[in-house]
From TrEMBL:
Cellular component, GO annotation: plasma membrane
Catalytic activity: a quinol + 2 Fe(III)-[cytochrome c](out) = a quinone + 2 Fe(II)-[cytochrome c](out) + 2 H(+)(out)
Protein name: Cytochrome bc1 complex cytochrome c subunit
Gene Ontology molecular function: any one: iron ion binding
Subcellular location: Cell membrane
Residue stretches spanning the membrane: 241-260
Length: 263
């Protein structure tokens, strides 16, 4: 004990212990880094992020900025999450040539792998809503059609039409039809709020209620048209008015034609 005490008071004891501590920290860091680098999932994720970054620089940075910070014509993508990218790019709304108009659904420019890479890159910039998994989207098991119909009428019908057929909004904008939309994209739209749509957080509409909404939309999508042409399912009053206007107009046209022939 006396010998150790003598060494501890030595002038070189402090620097020696510092060197030993630094070596221990460096060794621990190298071992931990090697362990992470050897993880297949970590390597795959890093590779996807880098691939997404390259795609972003080539196809998106001219509007959204080199670091996704946004610009004069496009918003920042920092914090929007992977779900927003998957929705916008997966439905073909992005990229778009004219940012002054409403983005329309069209054939996607990037395939599924490229879209996933873009989403991974944007998600790496800051936390945001994640892409829902198949386990989350089990609306057939966890959803309720009756509850979904009530939620839709209270929160969605004023824009998307009471039957989900879409409708006009102000300033030349519109709410698109929900018929034929994949459940994943409906869920992503609810949690990200694209275009003029508000964000429905889990506190506003819970994940279980979102599944009920999807289940009702799919039920409405598969409902048969017993009356023939749907005309957007905008209701019997409007459909009846259209029939009367066309019918009476046709009768007036026939009457005028007969009068002309009689002369």
């Amino acid at each position: 004990m006396k010998r150790l005490s003598r060494y501890r008071r030595h002038r070189a004891a402090g620097p020696f212990l510092l060197v030993v501590a630094l070596l221990a920290i460096g060794t621990t860091f190298n071992v931990a880094s090697a362990t992470v680098a050897q993880s297949p999932n970590s390597f795959a994720r890093t590779s996807a992020i880098e691939e997404g970054r390259q795609i972003f620089l080539k196809g998106c940075s001219s509007c959204h900025g080199l670091n996704a910070e946004g610009g004069a014509i496009a918003p920042s993508l920092i914090g929007v999450g992977a779900a927003s990218v998957d929705f916008q790019v997966g439905t073909g709304r992005m990229p778009m040539a004219d940012m002054s108009t409403q983005a329309m659904r069209k054939a996607p420019v990037y395939n599924a792998e490229e879209t996933a890479a873009l989403a991974a890159y944007v998600a790496s910039l800051a936390p945001g809503p994640a892409i829902p998994t198949d386990a989350v989207l089990n609306y057939e098991r966890d959803g309720s059609t009756a509850e979904g119909g009530e939620l839709f009428r209270n929160n969605c019908a004023m824009c998307h039409n009471f039957a989900g057929q879409g409708g006009a909004l102000t300033q030349g904008k519109y709410a698109p039809t929900l018929m034929g939309v994949e459940p994943k994209y409906i869920y992503e739209a609810l949690i990200t709020g694209p275009q003029s749509m508000p964000v429905f957080s889990d506190k506003t509409i819970t994940p279980a209620e979102k599944l009920s909404l999807i289940k009702w939309i799919k039920s409405a999508e598969n409902e048969p048209n017993l009356g023939g042409a749907t005309m957007g399912r905008i209701g019997p009053v409007t459909e009846g008015l259209l029939a009367w206007v066309l019918g009476i107009g046709l009768l007036i046209g026939i009457a005028v034609w007969l009068t002309t022939k009689a002369r």
